[in-house]
Design goal:
With about 100 residues, this protein is mainly alpha-helical. It contains three helices and no strands.
Length: about 100
Amino acid sequence: MAIDTQAQAGLVAARQHINELDQQIAALLAERFETVDEIARLKQAAQVPVKNQAREAQVLDQVADAIGSKQLAPHARKIFVTIMAESRAYQTQKIKTSTLEDN
């Protein structure tokens, strides 16, 4: 089977674009976690639980709407379920660390 050099070049270019997008996503996740850090501090001060099911459902609905594709929405929701789970874990860790430091 002959190698399609045009297809190979297209694949290299598409992968480079994915790499660039991944860098942007990573930067946005870092920014998101900076905000999560602030939210953990505020939740601790307000004495509210880390998990807020209503808020998470709202976020998932917003993501599904923002993605603009019924075909992609379930995949985006799964990604954000993971992001929110990691955000909760990070908040819990920050609150526990803060509580230990206060004692």
